[in-house]
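The following record pairs a protein chain with its ligand, flavin-adenine dinucleotide.
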Amino acid sequence: MEQATEVYPNVYKTPSSDIFPDYAKFQGTDQDKFDMIYATLDTLIEIMDRNKVYEKSAEWDEEGVKLVNGKVVFPNGYEKVIDEIIKENQLGTLVLPESLGGLELTTVQFAPVIELVARYDASMGMTAMSGLGIMNILKQFYKPEFEDILQGFAVGENTGYAAFTEAQAGSNLRNIKSTSVLDGDDYVLNGTKIFITNGGYANYGIFLANNIVDGKKEGTNVFLVGDYEGITAVRLEHKSGIRTSPTAELLFEDVRVPKEHLIGEVGTGYEKVIERLLGMRVSVSFQALGNCKRAYELAESYSNTREQFGKPIGSFPAIQRKLKQMRLQLSRMEEWAYAGAFALDWVTERTDVMGVQEANTKREKLAHSIKEILKHEDLIHYYVSGGKLYNGEISNYFMYDAQQIFGGNGFISETEINKITRDVRILPVFDGTSEIHAWVVNRSLKYLDTIPEFVKVSSIWEGNTIYEDHVISRFPSLRDKL
Ligand SMILES: Cc1cc2nc3c(=O)[nH]c(=O)nc-3n(C[C@H](O)[C@H](O)[C@H](O)COP(=O)(O)OP(=O)(O)OC[C@H]3O[C@@H](n4cnc5c(N)ncnc54)[C@H](O)[C@@H]3O)c2cc1C
């Protein structure tokens, strides 16, 4: 069995670690935490290898998920692995705040876990990590009512989905039709959400709706919803990739939610809550990295064993060039992923006004430094969106080459390389398309040159052509900006 230290020899020393200000702080110096993270990675590797996830993932993918009586049914053996990861391993305790008994790892510290599970299987990562995005939001907008629910996520009893998209509202979430109306101590929710990852599987979700007062729209609200009456998984999509990750249409019919389950302040859901779902985007960057690292492993090994013209194909310069280019892309993807994780930790520390600890002091600080915070928000968007854009796009170019190395075998759908090629296609689409993230990056440049830290942070890219030509040609507005 591989040890985490072999798979991730440099996990806490990425190329950026010497240059990012404060980076070492988010890596941490606490030996107990380091030991715990490596122990977790080792345990995950043991679980995945014992359950033969590499060997079975393409088979599971072929079978896909089904909806039976409104509940997701996974292929045989798949859910057992998920349960081992999140329940027996209690994965969520790693990110639970210390004040609630958790380890409260930073994003930088936790990121290798996301990458590792995605490396074995993209869908499995998306199912196993389903609760973490919600935990992140509940931590940021903490109320005592959320404590038990957070504890449930920590031990894997709770799992999560995020229900924003509607048929007419994809990139433009402001165009949603779902409604929330206050009625006594409850809000009443109605609407139809599509493309919801883990819908029909997870027992908790966050739901975006218009805030309706006296029949008029007054902003938007975000709610934490449980397994309430009136929520139905109507159907699952048939997809070309991530086929064991359920993607559901969810119907909300007169769903009553206690008003305490409103997240953030009334009417500010889109601006204040949805905009802070940055952890999910950083996860996508690490998912891309994990998928591509596995593909590299497969492609390199195939190039050593497959022989043509009496030689391993890896001896031909055309194949060597591809592998070299892929190694370069991997290191850049790693930098972008960690840049996003770092920026998230760095800014969260400064803006986490609703955090569990020191909430009042931070709120006061916020009032005095709103301009600073805005700049920091821009910094975070630059790196989080830049990373999501880069890794989403490059993973697809990367997989084109990886698949090409396999020749005809790469085109056969039940091979692992073919599955990964199909899996990465979603990365430039969900959690905001590349086009939207390119727009966010452009917008975020407004303040960047005024932030001293940015000068230091940006130096990691000095001398690098960060964006390959094919990405720049697709997003010409970003020329010289990334
Ligand atoms: C497998 C899968 C899982 C998903 N999981 C979830 C989930 O868990 N929760 C959830 O809420 N949603 C989820 N989604 C929805 C996903 O986030 C949306 O599909 C995505 O945001 C794009 O919306 P859309 O599909 O409506 O495309 P559209 O918004 O219609 O976009 C179509 C094209 O137009 C481009 N475009 C749109 N606006 C602009 C613009 N202003 N400038 C330039 N180009 C533009 C887009 O980039 C895209 O290329 C999922 C989708 C899939 C396929």
